[in-house]
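I'll show an entry:

:::
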Amino acid sequence: MVTDPGLLHWRDPVADIGHLAEIADRVRARVETVIDGKSEAITTALVVLLSEGHLLIEDVPGVGKTMLAKALARSIDARVRRIQFTPDLLPSDVTGVSVYNQGTRDFEFRPGPVFANIVVGDEINRAEPKAQSALLECMEEHQVTVDGVTYRLESPFMVIATQNPVEMEGTRALPEAQRDRFTARISMGYPSPAAEMAMLDNHGNANPLTGITPVTDAAEIARLISLVRTVHVSPEVRHYIVDLVGGTRVHPEIALGASPRAALHLIRAARARAALDQRAFVLPDDVQEMAIPVMAHRLLLHPEIMLSGEPTTEVAARVLTEVLHRIPIPRPGTARPARHGR
């Protein structure tokens, strides 16, 4: 693994990366009081928050998906709203609706739950596609258009959505366009026996979320997001990202590879990951660490691969691991045109 900062010819950011890491550690500590033994999932959630992205948490019921989303939201003094996605949910239940006011004889817009800093979407894949599509504009453009009028959303804005595996009753796969708007997807997995015993001891008699108090606020998170944007990414690392994304588009098991939006999300996530390590420059290590969470959920497999019986998440992770092994890690002074995986 490459760890030479000289590769990147980095420059100091204007603000203090150390302060960012300190705030992130405090948020992580708060979340870990209710989520035991899931440090990797918590770190990825922090990366997505600081890269101004959106997080998709996928796993079976009861492993802490919603608990993680709520714990992260409660650790920040910001506007938080929750949406329970159900088959009868309407787009107006998400974005808001114009209501006629008899007193003024005019229509008034009543904002929906997306008008918040952190929106927790619970079981997003139980809703009909028309309700899911209500999130497309706000996740990409940070705005909502209702009856021809566009309303801007506050910054920071983050959607944390949970979903059950598609094989479970009453669920449906998210459209490709919506999956592509999530910066990263994580799975919680079952806890270790020690973590599960600690959960029984600590959370058996009370709701653990009641003890979480904010350690920062929305204004501070917005400033830290601006700081992450200053983290330097060298031309070599940029070409490396383009090569990785291109490698998914020519793999024989993939019908639809990662999109250009995936490359943008990967570079933003790598910046945030570097900042959490108190670095003002991105290493190839940061890109490699975030490649699977950022790109796996965007890959569309060939039908015959999907029918083979191997879980699609495992196939996507395996394909990305192969691409990571095949694409050369950049060395100092090796900037060149992208290879697109060939």
Observations:
- The CA atoms of residues 124 and 259 lie 22 Å apart.
- The chain is about 40% helix and 15% strand.
